[in-house]
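Retro notes
What went well: the complex prediction finally ran end to end.
Inputs used:
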Amino acid sequence: MDFDVSSDWHVASPYDFLRTLRHEQPVFFSEHLDAYVLTRYDDIRAAYGDHRRFSSKGSLTISRSLTEETRARLGEHGSFLSSFVANVDPPDHTRLRRSVSRAFTPRAVSALEQRFRELNEQLLDRVLPSGGADFIADIGHEPSVKLTAAFIGVPEADESFVQSRVKDWFQLFLSPQPAARQLELADSFLTYLDYVDRLVASRAKDPQDDFTSLMTSLIGSELSHREVVELISTILLGGNDTVPNQLGNSVLRLLREDTWPVPEALIPGAVEECMRIDGASLGSFRYALTDITLHGTTIPAGALVLLSTDSAAHDETVFPEPERFVIDRQNADAHLVFGYGIHFCVGAALGRLQLRTALEVLGRRLPYLSLDPGPVTYRKSIVGRGLTTLPVHW
Ligand code: HEM
């Protein structure tokens, strides 16, 4: 057995495999990933907290499956993301993180709640009469995509263009694709970069009240042009994809556990327990900067390491009976699904706000939500867990 993203069991339910690794091989070498994998909670938390030995530099550039032809097509963008905040170490990280954090103040985040609530209500006004839908395609994504677009400053007319490009990008860099498909996705990705580039140029001329204008105003003093383009493109990815994935996973879990709708007082805890048990992020990659010996195994300097937060969230030494869903589990928020340490997700508060608001509005408007019979399917990706479809009725 290995971390094989092309097999269904691995994405849907790898927990027996992960438990065996935690007990027997806490530092596991995955042939499939060509990386060492840490699976114990304490080791993962310690590694996240130790950026001097576990480097983020280049760790997100998961372009290992790209063909020569695709690389040539991408040119200088083959290693795109090389200056994205999650992909660099201090001192660059300290500077970039300071700039990004300016846009994620508690006040700025809570100001988005009302807008997000309205987006959910409007969507439900539209779909409610149909009596059923695919939760993923028809409900889960739209409010987050629209909220992120408004936050970034993408005009409404361009939203669907951006959404489809972001999807292509995700496929190209984060899951293995056949050679011909890679080229199509690479072209799509290049037009997306071009678009973001033009958005930055237009805000430089005519600033508005949005993230792009704020970051563009820092070009020259704190940030470079490339850093701003990478930040914007990746935050669009973060907002468009992770939150809807987490919401889909959470709704499926709550329906299966027969805990729908969630009483309002239990929503914050339910959001954490859903993240813990069905996290949308499965882990983060790091590079070992020195030889690191752990539990008798030496990870050589230069090796790639996967910190499996999915395994950490199911570590029975921290979360008793980890496969059981406990809606008010006391320490559910100790999960590491938002990472930990200096790279802790800058959008965590915004993500939590969206998940809580969505569960509240959906529970109130669709109290009789039920699953349609039939199997559910997951996307094949090593870094993210998300459903491809989730047919429901009400
Ligand atoms: C449920 C939703 C989300 C999950 C599960 C998630 C997960 C993560 C994780 C695991 C990291 C750490 C990566 C690492 O250490 O290598 C991270 C970082 C980051 N996230 Fe999120 N995220 C979510 C939502 C968001 C949102 C909504 C945004 C922005 C709108 C966002 C923006 C970022 C950024 C910019 C970083 C890099 C921070 C740094 O390197 O200092 N995320 N996220």
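What we learned: Residues 56, 85-86, 97, 100, 235, 238-239, 242-243, 246, 280-281, 284, 337-339, 343, 345-347, 350-351 surround protoporphyrin IX containing FE (CB under 6 Å).
What to try next: split runs per interface for comparison.
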